[in-house]
Amino acid sequence: MVNNLDRSIEEKDRSSPSVIGHRPGRFWVGCSDSHVSFFELATNPSGLVHSNPGNLALSSDISFLASLKMAIDTYGVSEIIVCGHYGCRSVEAAASGIREEIIGDWLIPVKALAGKYPGLPTAADKPRPITDKLAEMNVVEQTINVSQTSIVRDAWASGRQLSIVGMIFDPVSGSLNRIGEPISSMTTP
Ligand SMILES: [Zn+2]
What we know:
The protein has about 190 residues and is an alpha/beta fold. It has one domain (about 1-180): Beta-carbonic Anhydrase, Chain A (3-Layer(aba) Sandwich), CATH 3.40.1050. The protein has nine helices and five strands. Strands 2-1-3-4-5 form a five-stranded mixed β-sheet, sandwiched between helices. The longest helix has 18 residues, at about 130-145. Zinc ion binds next to helix 5. Zinc ion binds near residues 31, 33, 85, 88 and 90.
């Protein structure tokens, strides 16, 4: 699996330079219970990694905001990647309506997303458990969250080239795939 993932990242580097082309210049937001963030650190040691349960990018999370600010202003990253994964226990916990203190509170945005789309459909061409579909939707939601921060908007307003990319890791196949379209301007409200 390690080799598969490593190959997958290398293939992305070769085939999609717009996604992972500038090795030192990306900021990775991943999930705490996914090994993919560690591989990202290993393959891109000069980049920045921020992880938490459910790979959330919340404007109420000062740790995330501080990391984002440093990534953009200090490191001058040109890409921000939000990476979720299939089989995510945080997403599964949110889908089950977990109420335990702290983690239950932390996952409120994912629980809200699950409640927003009850009976989430699975993709016909790639059947997945509903929680995996929720993991994909959560990635898209978090990329939008990143795009709406004043830190990113100020960067765009100053003329900076900055793309926000959603990705999903499949621990079974070891593949890493893009979810949704990259956001590179103030196209969201
Ligand atoms: Zn996870």
